[in-house]
Amino acid sequence: MKLRQLLSACEYSVLQGNIDVDIVDVIYDSRKVTPGCAFVCLKGFNVDGHKFIVDALEKGAVALIVEDEVDAPQDVCVIKTDNTRIALAYMSVEYFGHPAKQLKTIAITGTKGKTTTVAMIRSILEKASIKTATIGTLGIVIDDQIYKTNNTTPESYEIQQAMRRMVNEGCKAMVIEASSLGLKWHRTDGIMFDYGIFTNFSNDHIGKAEHKDMEEYLACKSLLFKQCKVGLINRDDEKWQEVISGHTCDIETYGFDSQADLVAHDDSLIARPGYIGVHFNTTGLKDLSIDVAIPGRFSVYNALAAISVCRHFDLTDKDILDGLNEVKVKGRVEAVPVVGDYTILIDYAHNALSMENILTTLKEYNPNRLVTMFGAGGNRPKDRRYEMGEVSGRLSDLSVITEDNSRFEDVMDIIEDIKVGINKTGGEYVVIPNRVDAIRYCIENAQKGDIIVLAGKGHEDYQEIRGVKYHMDEREIIADIFDSLS
C-alpha cells in the first residue's frame, strides 16, 4: 500500500522523501520492524519510540512517522504529525481495510463490570446465531480461540488487525472493553462505534502512568460518547450526566431509576448447588423476567447494559433470557461443576477491595459456610497481603491460605505476611502452601450448602515461580481431583 493512502485520514507534513513509497506494514515496536515498513514513533510514559529510529532504519524501515525533528537518510520518507498515536490508529484502519464497517461494533467503558458485560452481550448475540468476537481483559476472543494482549484495550494496530481477522472468520459483531487509558491514548480512534456503553464510575487508575486526577479519568471515559452512534448509560450512577457531557450520540438509559428508559425492579437472589445468580424484572423498552447466572446486585446492572444494546439486534426475548441464564465469565465468580451439594466459584479477586466486594456479595446468599482459598503475589507491596488476610478473616467462615504467583519470593514468607492480617480478626484459617493440595482440601472437606471461593487466579492458566510460568488451570485441577475421588 502506498504511504499516501495510509496517511489519507491523517494531518501531517512531509519533512523529506516520497509519500508514494510502497509500505508493506505499519510497525510501532522497533523489535518487530521488517524491511519495507513504516515505523511509527510512539511516545509513552516510559518509552519514546523516537529513540529507536536508528534500530528501525537498520532493520529496513523506509518511512518514519514522527512528532519531533529527526535525522534520517535522504532516501527515507519522514512524516511529521502532532500525535503519532492518532496517526497509528488511522494508518491501521487503512492498512486493514476499514474492518469496523463490516461489523456491528460495541464499546464498553466504566470502572467496573466491563468484562462481565462483554460476556453477557456475546452470550445473548450468539444465542441468536450472531457470531460475536470480543477484545478485553481476557484477550482477543474469536470462537474458542484466545489471543493474549498486553492491555485491556490493545494498541490501535492490534485492534484493527483483530477486527480484520474477525471479519475473515465470519463474525458479524465485535464487543470491546474501552478502558479510560485506551481512550486517552487514542487506541480506539478511527472507529465510529455503533453502540457505546457506560457501566459506572468510581475511584481507580490515578497515578503518574495513568490519570493525573479523577477529572481526567472521567473526561477520558466521556470520549466514547463522541465516537459512537448510540450511547447506553447507567442512569443510577451519580456521574452519568457528566460522562455524556458534550456527547454527539443518541442516548438511552438503564437502571433502577423509574426515569430510565429500561427499568429494573423486584431483584432477588437465586442459589442452588452449582448455580448462584440473581433474578429481576424489567419494564420500559423491554418487559422481561430474567435469571442471570452471576451473583450480586451489580449483575443486574451488567445485564441491563447487555439487554439495552442487544435489543437493537435482530433477536428474540428468548435469546436474551437464555443468554443471561447461561452466561459464564471465565474467572469472574465462575461456577464450576462439582459432585456434591455445594458450590465452587473461581474468581480473579487478588486485592483487598475485590475480595471484599465478592465475599460481601456471597454472604448475602447465606451459605452454610463461606470458604475462601487465596494467596498473594510475590514482589508486590506487603500491605496488600495484610489487607487481604484481614478481609478474608473478617468475612469468611474459613480461610485456606496458599500460594499464588510467588514470583521471586518464598511462598512461606508471603503466607506469614497474610497471617499478620488474618490474625487481627480471629478468623479461622488453615495453611496449605501447595495450591493444588489446597484445592483438594477444600473439596474433600466441603459441607452441604458451602460456597467455596478459589480467589486470585481467575482466568489465568499459569503459576509464576522464580521467573517461570508453569501451566495451572484450576478448572482442570478440580476435574482431576473429582476423577481421582470417583
Walk me through this protein's architecture.
The protein has 486 residues and is an alpha/beta fold. It has three domains: 3-95, Udp-n-acetylmuramoylalanyl-d-glutamate--2,6- Diaminopimelate Ligase, Chain: A, domain 1 (3-Layer(aba) Sandwich); 99-325, 3-Layer(aba) Sandwich (UDP-N-acetylmuramoyl-L-alanine:D-glutamate ligase), CATH 3.40.1190; 334-485, Mur ligase, C-terminal domain (Protein-Tyrosine Phosphatase, Chain A). The chain has helices spanning 3-6, 53-58, 84-95, 114-127, 156-168, 180-184, 214-222, 240-243, 298-310, 317-325, 352-363, 382-395, 411-422, 435-444, 474-485; strands at residues 13-16, 26-27, 38-40, 63-66, 77-80, 104-109, 132-136, 139-142, 145-147, 173-177, 193-198, 228-234, 250-255, 262-272, 275-284, 288-292, 334-336, 343-347, 370-374, 398-401, 429-431, 451-455, 462-465, 468-471. The strands form four sheets. Strands 9-8-7-10-6-11-12-13-14-15-16 form an eleven-stranded mixed beta sheet, sandwiched between helices. Strands 17-18-22-19-20-21 form a six-stranded mixed beta sheet, sandwiched between helices. A five-stranded mixed beta sheet has the order 1-5-4-3-2, covered by helices on one side. Strand 14 (262-272) and strand 15 form a beta hairpin. The chain is globular, with a radius of gyration of 24 Å.
Taken together, the total number of domains comes to 3
Radius of gyration, in Å, reads 24 Å
What structural class results from the helix and strand content? Answer: alpha/beta
- Find the CATH topology of the largest domain: UDP-N-acetylmuramoyl-L-alanine:D-glutamate ligase
Mean pLDDT across the residues is: 95
Q: Tell me what the CATH architecture of the largest domain is.
A: 3-Layer(aba) Sandwich
